[in-house]
Design goal:
Two copies of one chain form a homodimer. Chain A is mostly helical. Chain A is 66% helix and 0% strand. Chain A binds a DNA duplex through helix 3.
DNA sequence: TGAAATCTAGACCGGTCGGTGGAAAATTGC
DNA sequence: GCAATTTTCCACCGACCGGTCTAGATTTCA
């Protein structure tokens, strides 16, 4: 079971580090616009090392995307899934969205949007493996959000009806926020959008008896 | 003032036709993934003719995008701007969105999403001219939507408050719908999303006196 | 008919693309 | 030390990239 120490010359680099910087480049420029030469210079590795470690450019991209999704999931979705506060967890999610998907993912100065969304649009169903990742991403978003909303219903904060539809609507809004972000919207604009989303969520709140609906 | 008939050999093709098919290709594949060779074969023109008529690949792309925006504006935004029905116009907008942005723009079998959104994501602020087009697109969306909502307010259908925020939220949702569409969501899923958007709009309706808030 | 103007066909350009192969370097077990 | 193994370096590959150029075809005007 224990894998023996490999024989031969040892790697001179940390594959994880290389993957991390490759991820950053793909995230910023997309797949087609990133050349092997670009990857060489930002990872500091030669082509052969990259090939040896990851296979083709496309394989490397897929690996980078998976890594991105892992991080994203932990940062954005896990809290939604494990939270116990119902609506507060949903608000917290949008608060995280406001301050940038990049937080904790080492966001650069430039705005990159969400790497998964960028990839889905660039490939547009062309690449089955990427489409699968994209599908998983959307499903996880919806299920995590629905989970939090269902908990909110249990807590009596909102109605039990049409929770899935609500979750899907929030997915669409989050997608929209990311598109806006990537296309250069100001922090103010993104902030306003997040506020609107949170208002929407707040509007689902059951009124204790009759009071202000908003 | 009257431009005289040009001297020399006349064009053997309709520039508009070429632009139309180039638009279709860029729409489907994006900018980087579309080669001059691809453009030659789908337009049926040689490089020199394309260059003669449109300049560089990038110029051609920009022209194609402008054409797309013209059509899109007329099909999607003009009705919103000239409508007189308030909320009904907004519902009609989403109904148009449901049946595909491609309608009237000769949507192909495959799903292409919105060409402008695809472009904004692919370039991500890299290209100033495209960014300008994207900005104009978003602004027009928001202003047209706000116009319709303001008319709805005048008709007493909704409150006058936070109309701009509502319009921006609807933009985010529409962006999200297009992303979902491009990344291969089924017609059913898109339909559910549009339904949720319409429900949201409907929820803004002022209750005549007390009746159902939803 | 001929000069000027414009367009088309397609060969051609240097550069870059993603990817490969081979020799040298570095480590292992023996 | 030696064979085996693996990685690194870097030159090199054919293909294709966006873009240019020239020769010849086709038109208008005189």
């Amino acid at each position: 079971m224990s894998d023996s120490r490999p024989v031969g010359r040892p790697l001179e680099f940390q594959p994880d580090d290389a993957l991390e910087s490759a991820m950053g480049l793909f995230w910023e420029r997309g797949y087609e616009a990133t050349s092997l030469q670009d990857l060489e210079s930002t990872t500091g590795l030669r082509r052969s090392s990259l090939y040896n470690a990851f296979g083709s450019k496309h394989d490397l991209y897929l690996r980078a995307m998976s890594r991105y999704l892992d991080k994203l999931g932990e940062l954005m979705f896990t809290p939604l899934e494990t939270g116990t506060e119902g609506l507060e967890d949903v608000h917290a999610f949008f608060e995280r969205l406001r301050h940038g998907i990049g937080k904790g993912l080492e966001a650069p100065h430039s705005v990159r949007g969400c790497m998964m969304i960028n990839g889905m649009i660039e490939f547009g169903g062309t690449d089955p493996k990427l489409a699968l990742l994209g599908d998983g991403f959307c499903r996880r978003f919806v299920s995590a959000m629905a989970l939090a909303l269902r908990r909110a219903a249990e807590l009596g904060q909102i109605d039990r009806e049409s929770i899935d539809a609500k979750a899907r609507l929030l997915l669409a809004i989050a997608l929209g926020v990311n598109v806006s972000s990537r296309s250069g919207a100001s922090a103010r604009e993104i902030g306003a959008l997040v506020d609107a989303a949170k208002d929407l969520v707040a509007s689902w709140r059951r009124t204790p008896d009759r009071a202000a609906a908003r």
